[in-house]
């Protein structure tokens, strides 16, 4: 068992707060975007992907975010509904803001990048008045995502969501989801990330994301243990540092570390790994599994998503993850990278 317990009387398992966007993933892969003609449209944005992942795994989920009053915004809201996600916390911008677009370039399984169109993006216009306290009050877990801290008024909305989550006893997870393009300076970024992380029970990020938060000093060796230890003086009960294909490590306040290896994958593109890992890991915790078992499940979910063309649409069911793990054990799946 992990140290984390959930209030079983609450009807909603999981609410994510933050960005709802569109991914346009290149259809002609293994080439630069200059040579790509067609893209497939998917719902995107890290917290959206995680929430869709949790819904696919069978949990009751809801979302708090803002969409543009356009075809893309309506597509996103409908997709969430079709996946059984409660959308009462999804508001619509009325100022003419647009939907953030992420064009993904897949040059090779290990060389992927994202070209962002995020000027006047609706998701960053989420206001404090849009944060649905009623929905948060019904949730066992609330997840925030770092990109929503990049600008006002979304930044204040996230801090209010944290306040509501604390008030109503939700477990709070923070996926660092650091995207440099939405921020003005590294110093500003680290300031707000650190302020938010102080309030969270579970913090998930890559080594590079934690490096960004530690830019004011204190961990020159880039030690995962030192990174994690800092947060146990605040609210954290689990800190996970992800290392891509090398796997991941979790720390708990008693100083114990827990590791997970990655699963083999026929990688198409690497983005979406972190989101599917988060969904699988948090789902495992909510089933009362150990941290190791939850990390293993998250790692297998990540391998499935990176072996697929999309992030959101490829989020697996629980049966699909278990099946994948079995097939890996039998040696039926080997890595291509
Ligand atoms: N090439 C890979 N092969 C197998 N598993 C992988 C690979 N890359 C990532 N993973 C799995 O996904 C998990 C999270 O990956 P990573 O550390 O890259 O997170 P991330 O950087 O947040 O992902 P993203 O690329 O979505 O932003 C890893 O712990 C691992 O289990
Ligand atoms: O909004 C982004 O930054 C891109 C995401 O939409 C995309 O789905 C992704 O990178 C997943 O991690």
UniProtKB/TrEMBL annotation:
Domain named Carbohydrate kinase PfkB: residues: 15-317
Any GO molecular function: 5-dehydro-2-deoxygluconokinase activity
Gene3D superfamilies the record matches: 3.40.1190.20, putative 5-dehydro-2- deoxygluconokinase (2.20.150.10)
Reactions it catalyzes: 5-dehydro-2-deoxy-D-gluconate + ATP = 6-phospho-5-dehydro-2-deoxy-D-gluconate + ADP + H(+)
EC number assigned by the record: 2.7.1.92
Similarity-based family: Belongs to the carbohydrate kinase PfkB family.
Name under which the protein is recorded: 5-dehydro-2-deoxygluconokinase
Species per Swiss-Prot/TrEMBL record: Paenibacillus lactis
Native organism taxonomy: Bacteria, Bacillati, Bacillota, Bacilli, Bacillales
């Amino acid at each position: 068992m992990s140290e984390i317990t959930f209030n079983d009387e609450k009807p909603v398992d999981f609410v994510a707060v933050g960005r709802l966007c569109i991914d346009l993933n290149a259809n002609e892969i293994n080439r630069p975007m200059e040579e790509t003609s067609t893209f497939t449209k998917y719902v995107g944005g890290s917290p959206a992907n995680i929430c869709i992942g949790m819904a696919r795994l069978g949990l009751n989920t809801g979302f708090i975010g803002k969409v543009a009053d356009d075809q893309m915004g309506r597509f996103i809201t409908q997709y969430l509904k079709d996946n059984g996600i409660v959308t009462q916390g999804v508001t619509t911008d009325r100022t003419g803001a647009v939907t953030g677009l992420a064009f993904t370039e897949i040059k090779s399984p290990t060389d992927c990048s994202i070209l962002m169109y995020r000027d006047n993006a609706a998701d960053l216009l989420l206001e404090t008045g849009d944060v649905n306290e009623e929905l948060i009050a019904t949730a066992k877990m609330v997840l925030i995502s770092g990109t929503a801290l990049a600008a006002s008024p979304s930044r204040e909305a996230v801090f209010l969501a944290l306040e509501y989550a604390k008030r109503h006893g939700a477990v709070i997870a923070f996926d660092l989801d650091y995207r440099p393009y939405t921020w003005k300076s590294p110093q500003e970024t680290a300031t707000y990330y650190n302020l938010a992380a102080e309030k969270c029970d579970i913090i998930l990020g890559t080594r590079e994301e934690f490096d960004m938060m530690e830019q004011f000093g204190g961990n020159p060796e880039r030690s995962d243990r030192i990174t994690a230890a800092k947060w146990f003086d605040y609210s954290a009960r689990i800190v996970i540092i992800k290392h891509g294909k090398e796997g991941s490590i979790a720390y708990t306040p008693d100083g114990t570390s827990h590791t997970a290896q990655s699963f083999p994958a026929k990688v198409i593109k690497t983005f979406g790994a972190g989101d599917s890992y988060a969904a699988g890991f948090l789902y495992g915790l909510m089933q009362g599994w150990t941290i190791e078992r939850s990390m293993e499940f998250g790692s297998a979910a990540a391998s499935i998503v990176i072996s697929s063309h999309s992030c959101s649409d490829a989020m697996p069911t629980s049966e699909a993850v278990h099946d994948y793990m079995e097939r890996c054990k039998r040696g039926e799946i080997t890595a291509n990278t």
